[in-house]
Automatic annotation (TrEMBL):
This is GNAT family N-acetyltransferase. It comes from the Bacteria. Pfam families: Acetyltransf_1. CDD domains: NAT_SF (cd04301). Keywords: Acyltransferase, Transferase. It comes from Streptomyces spongiicola. InterPro entries: Acyl_CoA_acyltransferase, Bact_Acetyltransf, GNAT_dom, Sper_AcTfrase_N. Residues 1-149 form the N-acetyltransferase domain.
Amino acid sequence: MQLREITDDNRDAVRSLRVRRNQKQFVASVSKSLKEAAKTPGAHPWYRAVYRGDEPVGFVMLAWKPPTGPFRGRHFLWRLLVDKRYQRLGIGREVLAQVAALVRADGATELLTSYEPGDGEPWPFYRKLGFRPTGEIDDGEIVLRLTFPAG
């Protein structure tokens, strides 16, 4: 599993990745995510295509220590999308492990994310990986924290 930059050579393939129909309310498309990143440079968007071998299988985007806003100075998992053909293969878990390692290497003690509650919500996935609710709500979404052990 590799996290690769999105370039002119792979942009269309990455933008064609899709989640299952019942997941669309919880995960924005890659195209929408890239547009949001372009519109909000102040959030310090950091994004990568997820590859398994030579095949793009997912997309991940973080707000990397934005200087303002509710997550000022913190790392926030903004998007995680695994294509419907590659779900339930451990890809999401591996992506989060790689992202967590990058964030820890940047000196962080936690990684935040949020989800919109509803039938089919991603909370069970995040809970299994060690995320816990912070008690915060951001724009109707429940904020979660993954705390990194000291050392």
